[in-house]
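Researcher: We are triaging several targets before committing to wet-lab work. For this one, the compound of interest is pyridoxal-5'-phosphate. I'm pasting the protein sequence and the ligand SMILES. What I need is the predicted three-dimensional arrangement of the protein with the ligand bound, expressed as structure tokens, so it can go straight into our comparison scripts without reformatting.
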Amino acid sequence: MDIFQKCLDYTDADDAKASGYYPYFRVIESESDSKVLMDGRELIMLGSNNYLGLTTHPHVRKRAHDALEKFGPSCTGSRLLNGNFSIHEELEQRLAAFVGKEATLVFSTGFQTNLGTISAIVGRHDNVVIDKDDHASIYDGCKLSYGKVSRFEHNNLVSLRKTLASLGSNAHGGTLVVVDGVFSMEGDVAPLPEMIEICKEFGARLMVDDAHASGVLGPRGEGTAAHFGVTDDVDLIMGTFSKSFASLGGFIAGDAKVIDYIRHNSRPFIFSAAMSPASVGACLGSLDVMESEPQHRERLWEITTRMQKGYRDLGFDLGTSETPVIPIILGDEMLVFAFWKRLLDEGIFVNPVRPPAVPAGRALLRTSYMASHTDEQMDYVLETFARIGKELGVVG
Ligand SMILES: Cc1ncc(COP(=O)(O)O)c(C=O)c1O
């Protein structure tokens, strides 16, 4: 059989396009901001992860520009051999101090960070235990490792304990538990203090993916561990630069010996080119801003509180979201696409999300907020959601 047969038989995307309900690969013709241009129309952007709105911050752009000018457009090599620039090391030192860990290592994407960390740490005799709703990159990091993978029910402490207990004693290997700090689709937060206690009871190490928490949670945006005041008890903190940092790349932070091991043993790190200078420059700029301009995070939380309350008062189901990731849970996939299309017609861009990205029966509209959204934009969003919600029979 031709290995391409599955491609020739694949019609899902064409079918969706023909029905007028194809939401993917929308072309954005402007910079990433609280409003964007699509098909020549201006839309309010409720579908990005630019939480602090730093993509348009002059200092962030200047540092990206300066790094490009000084170091050029590419490092043209792996950090291990020929692509290790002084700004990578500067960023790693700054990040370690920011999140409160001894050392960090930066990767070229967040996805690669999870692949490269989990596959380096979890060996043949080890266990890795993950939340069922963890990000795809955590799943794929587990696949790339040679360890035994177990899943527990989402944010369920009883299930975590049961799963760890079921692994029994293992004289030859250890256990890594990996959770998202803030879950990317439903915006709920992992109960880290309780998880830490359970991990300690079973001698397991804990890694937290802060893709949606960096810049957002914690007194200065340090992440989920700082939010709960448990930084010393979270063994590994992972973050991406593609969200609050307004850049591209990722980092892993932890004890110096552990980070050094990953640096020398992670194949996705070693056999891949270094993060580009402009991306590193943007991250350094964002760190400067996070440390010196708390107003962006404060504004983000003002908007988040207002929108959480606004949607709940209208009668929408937001699940247990507590963050700027606010899901409008509709359950039915067709309803999600109908609602998404009506919002697009009214000038609002959101992400329709269906299984397998969420569990069956929990299809939703993922909305997310940024510090640069205006009050007028948020008024219009709530009015429009109320109107369409009534039209489609979602709210009374
Ligand atoms: C929870 C989580 N982890 C990891 C990633 C991967 O990060 P990146 O897109 O920066 O590669 C994402 C991004 O979608 C994410 O949401």
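Researcher: Any quick observations?
Model: The chain has a mean pLDDT of 97.
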